């Protein structure tokens, strides 16, 4: 079995942006005037350091394109349009040691959300390329499902072009197409490669998405355990065989509500490196069938088939 080795950066950079009709020159003063939050002391202690830098930017001198920021869901499209049409922006940048994650990015996003609330603006994550769903205060507990990775489904059935049959109606529908390719965006800020799953038939897109989510959470939990040992290497080696559990999926959502009376056994998957910064998810090597046979079979826990987003 060939192990997987990937580089682990000593520091990572994340950027969050707020678009509004008017962005004040003194963004630090805006934060100091806001009501107390659990992150207030962290924000105050990091302001002006590489761990929390505030800049005011405007068109046409931007080094990034606000029109490329997208809404994760249809109800956020108006906010995405407002963001793309804005001319003034507040940018929150965090350049922090990998061992300072996830607190460093939580503090930075809390600051961005606070600025957005103060100026009536729209906030976005420049790493995931997505508009924030809400300006609610950042919770103190880290939950990966809180928009830390871009993990939304593509337009259903290839934007209406796909004619693959539902497997319940036609057994051949299990492998009726290979339209869906999913990839995370955001794991890199925690020092991990992104993960992807591809060649998935449209009827299994939700199962594939949830396998991606559970795998991302499993890798992140394992990565933080490794970092806690104080490694000195700038590379990490992991096994390509991963046993993912219902608990990993629950941890992705930050809940235990979906644990069944009889816990589902782990399901095994295979990781393979596509680049030093991207891993592919496939069925285990001893599985006799396609990725769609794997997703449609009885291998995955029940929760993988019915949860698309948190209410």
TrEMBL record:
It comes from the Bacteria. This is Uncharacterized protein. It comes from Actinomadura syzygii.
């Amino acid at each position: 079995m060939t192990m997987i080795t990937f580089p682990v950066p000593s520091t990572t950079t994340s950027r969050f942006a707020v678009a509004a009709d008017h962005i004040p020159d003194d963004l630090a003063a805006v934060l100091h005037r806001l009501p107390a939050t659990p992150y207030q002391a962290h924000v105050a202690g990091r302001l002006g350091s590489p761990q929390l830098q505030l800049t005011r930017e405007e068109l046409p001198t931007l080094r990034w394109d606000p029109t490329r920021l997208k809404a994760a869901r249809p109800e956020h499209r108006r906010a995405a349009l407002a963001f793309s049409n804005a001319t003034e922006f507040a940018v929150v940048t965090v350049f922090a040691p990998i061992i300072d994650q996830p607190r460093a990015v939580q503090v930075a996003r809390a600051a961005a959300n606070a600025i957005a609330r103060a100026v009536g603006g729209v906030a976005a994550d420049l790493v995931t390329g997505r508009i924030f769903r809400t300006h609610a205060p950042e919770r103190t507990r880290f939950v990966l499902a809180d928009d830390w990775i871009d993990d939304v489904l593509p337009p259903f059935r290839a934007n209406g072009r796909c004619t693959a049959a539902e497997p319940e109606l036609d057994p051949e529908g299990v492998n009726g197409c290979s339209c869906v390719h999913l990839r995370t965006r955001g794991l890199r800020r925690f020092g991990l490669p992104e993960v992807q799953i591809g060649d998935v038939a449209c009827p299994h897109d939700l199962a594939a998405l949830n396998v991606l989510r559970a795998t991302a959470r499993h890798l992140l939990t394992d990565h933080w355990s490794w970092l806690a040992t104080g490694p000195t290497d700038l590379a990490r080696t992991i096994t390509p065989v991963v046993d993912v559990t219902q608990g990993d999926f629950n941890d992705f959502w930050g809940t235990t509500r979906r644990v069944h009376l009889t816990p589902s056994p782990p399901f095994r998957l295979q990781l393979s490196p596509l680049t030093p910064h991207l891993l592919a998810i496939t069925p285990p090597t001893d599985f006799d069938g396609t990725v769609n046979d794997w997703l449609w079979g009885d291998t995955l826990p029940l929760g993988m088939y019915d949860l698309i987003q948190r209410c």
